[in-house]
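Task card 7
Instruction: Convert sequence to structure tokens.
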Amino acid sequence: MSPLRKHFASALIGVLRQPSGFLQHPFLVPGGLYGDEQWDWDSYWMVRGYLKLLKGADVLPTFLDHARGTWINFFKNQSENGSVPIMSKSNNPDFFRCCTPSDSEKNQAKPVFGMLALEVSQASGSFEWVRPYFDQLLFYYARWSGHYRSGCGLLVWGSDIAIGVDCDPTTYGRPDFSSANLLLNCFFYKDLLAAAEIAESLGRGADSERLLCEAAVTRAALQRECWDDIDAFYYTVDVHCVDRRHVQYPTLKKGMDMSWRTIPLKTKMFTGFLPLWCGIATSEQARLLVERHLRNEQEFAAPKGIRTMAMTERMYDATTDSANPSNWLGPVWVVANYMVYEGLRGYGFDNDANDLARKTRDLLTDDLEKTGTLHENYHPENGAPNFNADFLSWNVLAAIMD
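Output:
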């Protein structure tokens, strides 16, 4: 067994938690700075990684109990309007006030729950545990579509709080409900597909068809609004394209209509590769993304993996050690490496995928040898750990990048 696999196996006991307070079912925690709390997309990535690592192991049933419990805890704390909390603690079911009907209510949990439920159901061989909660999952999607869907067909973040890629300049510091972020929409697309598969397995064919239709709308909008032919790159877009002159000058004669619905926010983030991860890019778009950007050492290709921001961007800063927001302006994050890796595999770029897998494993193995633990992100040139010792969460994905 490799040092990484040994580390993740020994760390498993530290991420399993028993029911406590508002978390009424066994649950998973990310480790490191994160204590008695469960997070939305951390939970999904941990489950995805550990289910592959633990296949056939005696501890697998226990882990599945905690994975199911984590999912159920989120929906036990769902609000009356369908919102699901981003993070829940045993003494606070909704840390970011996602489910509180007030002015502070801006974001909700990232769309990972279809994918998470599908992983657990396939690993356990049964979808029946989801059945009592499936309507709540549909209600959660309805909240996304009803409250966050813009006129162009893409979802927008309600604010820049707890968006995952915290300091992504295409959302961080920008107006509320303006950023149709690539990560949000690519996740929503994949999550709808996963939920459609669950619906089919539960004998809910009409729901499956409706979810697939909604996924198709999101896919079309991502292609139409986010792909840039000139740069051969996918960009997050701003949706605040509204003519408000009539408010200031009510008597002004109406002139040219505003024919555009979005403005591309031309900052190259790793999220530009997520259409590979979720499978919506054409083969030609995939080729251009890989050849012009992913392999470009002045942009994303780094000795230790994929820079989360292209080095050519003026905001690029791979050294800042920050927790709030966490730094995604260039450091290597294993979750970003993994999503790019999956995209490369899906489009047949196996040599690039193998190279990225090797870099990622070597990065964490070196950290483990030098410090005795793992960290949350790393310098892309020299691999120096950048933040949060003892972090686990999605780092487990490195061990399944074959």
